[in-house]
Amino acid sequence: MGFLDSILGNTQLPEAKTDKLFAISTAAITLEANLGLKPDGAAAVCIKPMDSSRYEAARTEIEDLLKLSFKEKGTEHSIQKDEFNYVWVVLKDKDFDDLVTNIQMVSQILMEQGFGTQLLAAVYRFKGESTVYWIYNFKLGSYYPFVPSGNQQRNTSQEFRLKSVMGAELPIEKDEAKWYPMWGMPI
Amino acid sequence: MRRWKSDLGLEARMFITMFLLAVIYLAFLAFLLATNTSQVVIILFMGGFMFLQYFFSDKMILASMGAKMVSESEAPELHQIVSRLCAIANLPMPKIAIVNNSMPNAFATGRNQKNAVVAVTTGIMNQLNRSELEAVLAHELTHVKNRDMMVMTIATFLSSVAQLMVRWLPFFGGGNQRDRNGGDGFIVMFLVSLLVWIVSYILIMSLSRYREFAADRGSAIITGQPSNLASALMKISGYRVPTQDLRKTEGPVRALFIVPAISGSSIWNLFSTHPSTEARIAALERIEKELEA
Predict the structure, then answer these.
(1) Residue B85: is its pLDDT beyond 80?
(2) Contact check, Cβ <8 Å, B1/A13
(3) What does the pLDDT read at residue B206?
(4) I want to staple B110 with a disulfide (CB 3.0 to 4.6 A). Which of A22, A123, A172, B115 is the partner?
């Protein structure tokens, strides 16, 4: 948002960027080969819901398509609200590529319906010695690692290690101040 | 892609107000420089004060309000609410502070987005539910995003000079001017300063109200739920009188800087500011309709 917008008090939510969302697909191979981190069969999209009947319509369309995807590929899904009133489309599938495709589909529908501004994050769960999340921030269009270590603490040193190992392959957010923790994720 | 229509009416009113202030200030400045160059000293003096006030606003206000900066582990809920809002609106994350006061209120301060602090009282945390608290925090984040500290500091600057002159000219003005027209010159200067002060004060108050509406609108857009801010405002509007008392705790800041007008620019009390709760809720209802359109 420009300087003039801020001086005149105009607020717009930035549109979601999805061009780098797919990068996790190839990065998953390196994550497993170099760091022993395997996809853990779960991913989710986090959405800020809106007071609008058109938003409800988009939500119904997503549910219908996910039901279809369950029939075709066996991807399980559930839609839930977290304690902060954000909506999570949680997907479960052993096949990582199916997860990536479905995440892409959900965000695509929301953008087509005009709710790309409401997309907060996509999250992929990985499992090694500990659970690692890769969070895609839709507004920045980049990923960052999130390694919770119990009691709302995070393992920052492992997060930085993940960044240095994966930096070449995954578009990782350079501004570490924007590596916002996500507590209360339903995955 | 969905773009919110800008509230052009609001932006136009804001622009006109700022433009009128600029015109008045330039005329006042020209007048001061033309009549008596020693006024430059007053302007520089005020400028220095305003700059210090602006630069250290966060520390001064937090100290005077008794606000305590809290880390993520001390206030995980507040941090999580704010960081998610910052992520979705792509804003820098401010520092967060809590004021131990049962009066429900919230404010934002800091000279720029990087040094911003958003503070809430324990009262507001107790009285609002999480969605309402989120709406209030989004309102404060919009103040930060809109650079209201900077805008209002600049807007109040020459008004404060005029006010200072109105106060002090009766004591010193006449005596300093020993030329033949000294007496008249003093009266003219006094009247001009008084006029500038009154007119700019009215404009500053309007500007401040417009910026409140803009922050309400920002909150509605960022949260996607204008109704949450409306219900927060309704819950808290019953606390008008106590919030006035909270404002008085700014005392030390005022005492330090002599010019009371400054206090308006240095702090953004969400609920003691100017538009009536009814007008704000009506504006939020219009935004709610926009969502359906």
Answers:
(1) yes
(2) no
(3) 86
(4) B115
What is this structure's pTM?
0.87
Say whether residue A53 is in contact with chain B using an 8 A CB cutoff.
Answer: yes
From the list A11, A55, A85, the residue facing B218 with the nearest CB is A11
In single-letter form, the type of residue at position A66 comes to: L
The reply to whether A1 touches chain B by the CB within 8 Å rule is yes
- Domain spans in chain B, listed from the N-terminal domain onward: 8-292
pLDDT score recorded for residue B164: 84
What's the full length of chain B, in residues?
293
> Residue B147's closest CA among A1, A12, A3?
A3
A-contacting residues in B 112-151 (Cβ below 8 Å): 130-131, 134, 142, 145-147, 151
**First and final C-alpha spacing in chain B:** 15
Please tell me the predicted confidence (pLDDT) of residue B3: 60
Q: How far is CA B84 from CA A108, B3, B14, B150, B179, in A?
A: 21, 20, 29, 25, 65
pLDDT, tens only, B35-79: 766 777 778 888 888 888 788 877 888 888 889 999 999 999 999
Stretches in chain A below the pLDDT threshold 50: none
Region B167-171 average pLDDT: 79
Using a CB–CB cutoff of 8 Å, tell me whether A72 touches chain B: no
Contact A7 B83 (CB under 8 A): no
Asked about B290 being catalytic, the answer comes back as no
- Contact yes or no for B262/B156 (Cβ under 8 A): yes
**Residue range B217-266, pLDDT digits in tens:** 999 999 999 999 999 998 887 654 344 444 444 333 332 222 222 334 34
175-204 in B: which are within 8 Å (CB) of A? none
Q: Is B242 exposed, middle or buried (0-12, 13-18, 19+ CB in 10 A)?
A: middle
Tell me the two tokens of residue A75: 């991807």
The answer to whether the Cβ–Cβ distance between A7 and B7 falls below 8 Å is: no
Q: Are A183 and B291 a contacting pair at CB < 8 A?
A: no
Q: Cβ–Cβ of A180/B10 closer than 8 Å?
A: no
> Which domains are delineated in chain A?
13-178 (3.30.70.600)
* ipTM summary value: 0.93
Q: Which amino acid is at A37?
A: L
Check B72, B74, B132, B140 and give the catalytic one.
B140
Cα B191 from Cα B106, distance rounded (Å): 38
Q: Is B215 on the interface with A (CB under 8 A)?
A: yes
Per-residue pLDDT, B182: 54
pLDDT of residue B264: 40
